[in-house]
Amino acid sequence: MNVPFRPPADAWSRRDILRNSFGAAALVCTVAGPGKLRGDTITTSAGRRAMQASPFRPFQRDVPIAPVLSPVHRQRGVDVYDLDIREGLADILPGFQTPIYGYDGIYPGPTIRARKGRAAIVRQHNTLSFDSNVHLHGGHVPAAHDGHPMDVIAPGASFDYSYPNDQDAAFLWYHDHAHGRTARTLYYGLVATYILEDDREAELDLPRDEYDVPLVLADHSFNRDGSLRYAENVDLGFRGDTILVNGAVTPRMRVEQRIYRLRFLNASNARTYELRLGDGRTMTQVASDGGLLERPVDRTRVPLHPAERVELLVDFRKFRPGSEIVLQNLQGEATTKAVMRFDVVRGGAEEARIPRGRMRTLERLPDPNATYRWDLSLFTGTSVQWQVAGRGFDPTRVDVRSRLGTTELWQWSNPSNRVHPMHLHGMLFRIVERSSGVVHPADRGWKDTVGVLPGESVTVQPWFVPYAGRYVFHCHALEHGDKAMMLQLEVVA
Amino acid sequence: MRGRIALALGSAAALGVAAPASAATVEVKGNDALTWDKQEVRVAAGDTVTWTFAGTVQAHNVQSDSPNWTMQSPLGAPAVPWTSEPFATPGTYRFICQVHPDTMWGNVIVGDAPPPPPPPPGQQPFPNDSPDVGDVETGAFDATRPQLRDVRVRRRAGGARVSLRVSERARVTVRVLRKGRTVKTKHASGAGRLRLTVAGKGLRAGRYRVVVRAVDLAGNASSARSARITLR
What we know:
The structure holds two protein chains of two kinds.
Chain A: H1 32-37, H2 45-52, E1 73-75, E2 78-90, E3 98-103, E4 112-115, E5 119-126, E6 134-137, E7 158-163, E8 170-176, H3 182-187, E9 191-197, H4 199-203, E10 212-223, E11 228-229, E12 242-245, E13 248-249, E14 252-257, E15 259-266, E16 273-277, E17 283-288, E18 291-299, E19 302-304, E20 309-315, E21 324-329, E22 338-348, E23 368-380, E24 384-388, E25 400-403, E26 407-413, E27 420-424, E28 428-434, E29 449-452, E30 457-463, E31 469-475, H5 478-482, E32 486-492
Parallel strand pairs in A: 2-5, 4-9, 10-15, 14-22, 23-26, 25-32
Antiparallel strand pairs in A: 1-2, 2-3, 5-7, 6-8, 8-9, 10-11, 10-12, 12-13, 15-20, 16-19, 16-21, 17-18, 17-20, 21-22, 23-24, 26-30, 27-29, 27-31, 28-30, 31-32
Chain B: H1 2-9, E1 25-29, E2 40-43, E3 48-52, E4 63-64, E5 82-83, E6 91-96, E7 105-110, E8 125-126, E9 137-138, E10 148-156, E11 159-178, E12 181-199, E13 206-216, E14 225-231
């Protein structure tokens, strides 16, 4: 059964008609609406002026932090979680409610905090009208629980995803991966973070609790009624005109004068960010997709391609209270240049410190025993399709067979004029070399996604551990991946 | 952008309706803002429409998107201009670009069909109109070192009392050294006038040197001040 996708805008019919009954035309002007939605609590003229301000004005709202999911029970070393995949209403634009799809109906979905060595079972119930599934991006997961695009949960059904959590601490995320529609399902909200911790990280005394902040970046556009507006662009990939951080429009964040651990996830469909803090202030990168780097790397500009994660320690002790520092996106257009703003307030402590020196030792890899070269190209025949090595995705065909425990050299060669963030499921790789220059020190750790720039060739060395089975690898510019830019890998024991 | 907002107003004049009657071929121009220059093309029966893509670098094409006709041009970057067959039968013929179907769509209306109704607010774009952000950093980056003033060290029973003034909130460290080795250390945090007393076991009679330093929260350190003191 393949029920077609429909956007959650259909949830409009179930919204409280009385609350929004002043007519569709009145929604174009937002003055009357918000007062009604909030029960007319705005009584000052300043308040009314604020409500008349554009809902897109930046830094009007404090950045929301997604709630941490509690297990429904713990049994003998395993934490069991329970989630509904369902429609919901999100407060994104001030004065509007935006229909979304979300884990437990919120965007972003709840954060799962897991511990290395303690398995988790995440029970997902699909209450949508179409197929869905869940992929734990960056996780070492058995093939049957990895969210392969063809392993879907039918509407009304459930599935217990089993995550062994037997890998080093890393910032993972989970999202929908049903075949052919990830560009829409992720866009409408099926995105959440999964933080895996371990003892090694705890020894480093990095910032914790409210000073360890996951920040989900995604660009969106809107319709006049506040619903999300999607416009397909198979060539460039979707570009929205508004940056959301944790589901809020260009928010602000109050920070004390201390060190913060900012975990950034690029959950955009296809937009690449280049982050810069204030007047080029130093941010210390301690981790990438696959966890801690060997040594921290001080950076002033941080590129972040779709699906990549980067963890930055920022020392706000150097700013006086009252300072406001804007995190910019250097690759943005007029309305997507500002990401968020940090407002420094009084209060600080000296417990956390920026680590210097070695944080971990990366494992030595076995020598590669095969080499592959994959060309990334746009096919323009009777239909438009992006391809890898001249092929689109075919679930009945295995494109590469690799032996469990070995490594190989994979070269992704990109003659096209678009960035392709190439992602491998179930396993991690190291970047060996790239034709655009030296591999940046912050890219020398474990990765699961690499942005192959236009005209570039990147060679990576995946390590096929720890599970055998069928996995996929694909471009994580979602419009490209949906239009077939995906191949299938089988790891054989 | 402007074209889409004009559509939201729903006024026929803003839609840029093509002039029919005398023209046998109407041109529709695609662009890299991912729209056509007209979304409604009115022609008489027997006329043709030509789609052009001058100045584009993204991949485009044009093809039919309603069941009453079939047309498809090849994809290209830039795409080649494409002319339809003459539209013989009155009706509404929807066309799209295959790469950007959500924004590059339009209708060829042959004959006297009524204009399609404006889309509901749930399908009208609400563009982000926020102005440029302005300063990327306001406030102050703390690069000033704290200043120590009026540092006085006095002998007290069994130890030393240090009083000082520090120009900003800082962590002040007082070290007592004998023959170059630190025998006692004491910290205090604050701003303005501070007093510390260093005493206790290990401070026998003799000559000592007392060194005072302040470090602020941002890590800027003052210069060290030292004084000599003889304990009895």
